[in-house]
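Q: Hi! First time asking for a complex rather than a single chain. Here are the components, and I think there are two in total. Is that enough to go on?
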Amino acid sequence: MIVCPHCKEVNMTGAIFCAECGAQMKDKDSQVTQRNIMNNSSDDQYLPFGGSNAWGSLHLLDTGQVLPLAVRNEFTIGRISEGQPIMPDIDLSTSQAFAAGVSRLHAVIRREGARIIIMDLGSANGTYVNGKRISPNVEQSIHHGDIVALGKMKIQILVNNNQGK
Amino acid sequence: MSSSKPDYYEILGILRDASQEEIKRAYFGAAQRLHPDKNVAAGETELFLDTQQAYEVLSNPTRRKLYDATLLPEIEVNRVVKHEVSFSRPNLVQLGEPQLVYALLEAGPREQKTKTKLVSPPLNLCLILDRSTSMQGDKFDIVKATAIQLLHSLRPQDVLSIVAFSDFAEVIVPASLDRDKKKHEGRIQMMQVSGATEIYSGLEAGVKEIRRTLDPQRVNHIILLTDGKTYGDEGACLKLAEEAAAQNIGITGMGIGHEWNDVFLDALAAKTGGSSAYISKPRDIERLLVDKFKTLISTYADDVLLEFKEQEHIKINYAFRLQPEGGSVEVESPIHLGPILQETSLQVLFEFLVGPGMLDGDTVTLLDGFMKTLITARPIPVPPIRLKLTRKIMQNSSTAPPPPQILNALSLLNLYRMQERARTAADAGQYDEAVRHLQNLATHLLSQGKRSLAKTALFEADNLEKKHAWSLAGNKDIKYSTRALLLSGAKEKAG
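A: Yes, that's all I need. Here is the structure of the assembled complex.
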C-alpha cells in the first residue's frame, strides 16, 4: 500500500496517480506535471514575467533568477501544487520552493505610490525581512536591497525608482 | 532462415508450435482467399500453390517432423510488424496484498527496406445513417450533404454503401463498384426522416451490405451515425458487432447531440477495435466524417488481435488505446486492440492487478499470448507475434521512476479516468463520491488552465449534488473533452 501525499487516500502498490484525487503519487517535481503547468499556464492566466516597464523585481538569491513586477500593483507569491486550485500570481514551484518551505499562498507584495509593502499571508514557515520574522497579515514596508525570506527562500527586493513615481 | 526456401509456417501465418487444428484453420482461411476461382491479383495463384504445399507437409505429422528438422532456429523477429513493451516498474515486490503494474504496448509497421511509399488500401465502406424523426432539420441536411461529398471523394477502387434506418432499414446505395453517382446522389437527397431509432435493424442491413463486397484486401468498415438511444436490442447489436469483427469488419460510432447512449456506442465499436466520437454541433459532422475517411485510407493494419490465456491471480484492470484513435479497449481475450496506421503506430496502455497469491516464485507472467495482425495490402498472413509479459519478483521495490513514456501516457489518461470514476460512482448512486471526483477533476483542469471545462465539471458536480442527475450534455461534454485533451496531448508529444 502507498498513501497519496496529497489526499492521504490509500492506493495499491504500483499506483502512479492517486485513484481518489488524481494527484501524482511521488516525484512531485517530475517533468510531466511541470511541463503541463508551464505549457498551459499561459493560455488564460496573467503572467507577471517579462514586462519591460517593471516597477521592481524579485531577485531569487538561490538561483539568480530575476522576476520583474510590472503592469499590476499587487502580486501574491507562492507555489502551484498539483491538485490544488490555488494560483499565486508568482509561482516559485520551479525554484525548489517546496523544499525551501514556501507555502502555496505565502505572501503578497504591493506598491502604494513610492512605498513597497510586503505582507505574510499566514504561511507555515513565516516571512522574514532582513532576518527578522514579520507578523502574519500585517503590512510591512520594504526598501530597495532588502532581503525577504519566504521560509528558507531568500529574495532580494529591487525597486525601480524611476517607475515608482 | 534462408530466404530462398519458403518457410511453411510463415506462409500459413502460424507459430511453429501450432496445433493440427490451427494449421487446418490457417490453411482453409488462406485457401478461401487465394483460390484460383476467386483471386484477382497477379501471382496469387502461385501463393495458393505454396499454401497448398505448406499444408500438405505440415498436416502430416511425420513429414512435419522431417521438415522441422531442416529449419534453422526460429528468429524471434517479425518482419512486418515491430512492437515494443515498456513497464511502469522494473520488478514487483513480495507483498501480502494486491499491487498494480502498467504496461505500454506499441506496435507499428517495420521500416521497409525499399523506400517506396506504402499503398493506400481500397475501402469497403458502409455508412449507416439514423433517419429517425429526431434527426429532422439541420442535422439531417448536413448528414445528407456529407454523404454526397463522401460519394464524390471516393477513388475508383473504393466501395461505398449507404443504409438509412429508423424502425426499419433501407438500403439507399447498395455495395458495388458501379458508380452511377447521379443516381446515388438523387437517392441520398430523397431520404426523409420518420420513425424511431432502432440500431439493430440498421446495423444488420449495413453488415449485410458490407459482406457483399467483403474482401480481406480492402479496409472493411462501418460508420454508424445516430442521435438516439436504441431500446432492447443492445445485446443483439453487440453480438452482431462481434461477428463482424471476426470477419475483420471495423465499426466506428458517431453520436450527435445529447440523447444517444455513448456507453453503448463505445462498447459496440470496442468489439471491433474501433472507437466512438461525439458530435456536439451538427456542423462538426462533416469534419469528423472526412477525417475518418482520411484515417481509413491510410490504414496499415485493420486490426491487431490480442489472444491470451488467463493467468491465475492476474487481472487486466483497465486498458485504453492512446493512439491512433483514443478509445476504450476490452479486457478479456481476444482483445481487438485497433488499427495501425501508416503514419501512426498503435499504443495501448494496460493496468494489471497482481494478486498476492502469485508471488511465490521469482518471476510472474502478466500476460502470455500472441498478437495477430491483418495487413490489408498483404496477401500472405503475418505470422503472429508472441507476447509474453513477465516481471521479476524482488524483496524490495525499485526506486527508479517509471519510464517517461509510461508517465506521459498515465498523466494524459489521468483526467479521463477521473471523469470515468465520477460516472461509475454516479451510476451506482453514490452521488457524494461522484461530486468529489468531479471537484477533483475541476481542480486539475484549473491548474492546467482549462477553465471552461473546469467550469463544466463544477456545474455538473452541482447538478449531481442537487438533482442527483447529470445535465443533458454535461457528462458527454466532459468525457469527450477529456478524451480530446488526452489525444491532443499525445499528438503534441509525438510531434
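A: Residues 27-51 of chain A have pLDDT under 50 and may be disordered. Let me know if you'd like any chain examined more closely.
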